């Protein structure tokens, strides 16, 4: 290890570099996004079916294409955000950290941004949800 800097030493000890760990943890966030999109679609379909059978009001029928677009936007924000933030983190003191530990805050930040972007495409205002708490 005589000629290696701290980033290379940490990378060789853990096996993967920070961008790869960010993507690996980002897979978990992508699974969460897909589950959230599916759950929202099912809830929308159930609400639509209940209100149309009971005659309680009018709710637009679920648009699957909109949910697919929202999921694509969320996944894109997640993947490209994780890659961008991990490349930026390599230029900070986090480059000396073990890549797994440096990837966790990156995955948290990109997960929040991706979830917010997905909900925004669906027309759900996250700030209004937070104000209600």
What's the structural blueprint in terms of helices and strands?
Layout: H1 6-14, H2 18-54, H3 64-89, H4 99-121, H5 126-131
Helix pairs in contact: 2-3, 2-4, 3-4
Observed structural traits:
133 residues; elongated; 0% strand; mainly alpha
Explain what this protein looks like in three dimensions.
The protein is mainly α. The protein has one domain (16-131). It contains 5 helices and no strands. The radius of gyration is 20 Å and the shape is elongated. The mean pLDDT is 87.
Order of helices and strands: HHHHH
**Based on DSSP secondary structure assignment, what is the total number of beta strands?**
0
Average pLDDT over all residues:
87
**How many distinct domains?**
1
The portion of residues assigned to helices is: over 70%
Rounded Rg: 20 Å
Query: What is the structural class?
Result: mainly alpha
Count of DSSP helices? 5
Shape descriptor: elongated
Brief account:
This protein has 133 residues and is mainly alpha-helical. The protein is built from five helices and no strands. The protein has helices spanning 6-14, 18-54, 64-89, 99-121, 126-131.
């Amino acid at each position: 290890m005589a000629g290696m800097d701290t980033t290379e030493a940490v990378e060789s000890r853990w096996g993967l570099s920070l961008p790869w760990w960010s993507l690996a943890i980002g897979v978990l966030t992508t699974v969460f996004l897909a589950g959230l999109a599916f759950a929202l679609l099912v809830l929308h379909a159930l609400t639509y079916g209940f209100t149309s059978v009971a005659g309680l009001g009018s709710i637009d029928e679920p648009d699957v294409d909109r949910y697919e677009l929202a999921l694509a936007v969320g996944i894109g924000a997640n993947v490209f955000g994780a890659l961008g933030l991990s490349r930026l983190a390599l230029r900070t003191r986090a480059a000396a950290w073990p890549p797994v530990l440096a990837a966790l805050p990156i995955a948290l930040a990109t997960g929040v941004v991706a979830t917010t972007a997905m909900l925004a495409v669906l027309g759900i205002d996250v700030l209004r949800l937070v104000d209600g708490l």
